[in-house]
Predict the structure.
Amino acid sequence: MSWLKECTLNWFQSLALRIIKTGEVPKHVAFIMDGNRRYANKQNLQKGEGHSKGFDKMTEMLNWCMDLGVVEVTVYAFSIENFKRSKEEVDGLMDLARQKFKRLLEEKEKLMDVGVCIRVIGNLSLIPEDLCKLVAEAMTITRENNKAFLNLAFAYTSRDEITHAIKDIIQGVKDADILPEDINEDLITDCLYTYKSPNPDLLIRTSGETRLSDFLMWQISNTCIYFTEVLWPEFNIWNFLSAIFYYQKCYPNLQKNRNNLKPIMHNSRVSMYLDKLHNKRDMAIETIYLSAVQS
Ligand code: FPP
Ligand code: MG
């Protein structure tokens, strides 16, 4: 299954989408794509097939987002907690990711034409080396694209993300790049895996679970959260448009809170430290990519 498909909406669905588009459209939408195994169970499929259907749904959803004008999407593809599942299921999910990243790299021309930037956010040291190389290649070649952004949270939890940010900040203080009094919420925000992205405007969780499962906990304090009973592989355009409509109803209140937010301004010492940290992270990804190309 391709990552970028032609639009499959019928005229009535397209019309509904165009009507919703006349209202406020979220720029950044995050998804907790839950319910793949329950779907598999319901359809007498193997768990792996449920995840595979989940991936297909994700590509469909990316098309709806692009049609609607959502610029950035962040999906919870694999949590660090998911490593506790059976070896068979974890291996199956890693294989699915391998297969899909290979496919993504095969269709890179299409990705470059559309201008999609792929970012994998998470603790890459936890994923198999060969998969990490594919991820690094996808991130490096699409780095400059800026028409649409897809952030795949893989081997991710917020607690791990915040722990890493704190470790980087401590190292910055030890190296005398920053001072203890430079530590504030803005600095932490810019040390997270998500430092390149604005906070999500809307978070959608499927499958009837009303938990956040350690996803983007720092980033969603002023995000509209939409829970739906639908299992992820069954999520359809009407469910998506209902979520957007819910966002449009919440928008005036969200806006009131946002008006109090000032843009982040760092002092020059902190700005230099952040440039160094972000360059170091980009270089680490590029080094993995170059080692893969050379081998
Ligand atoms: C949650 O359903 C879903 C996951 C743990 C995996 C989601 C992954 C994808 C949809 C595709 C990932 C994309 C790539 C690039 C590999 P669940 O397993 O918790 O199902 P349940 O809630 O019914 O038990
Ligand atoms: Mg689940």
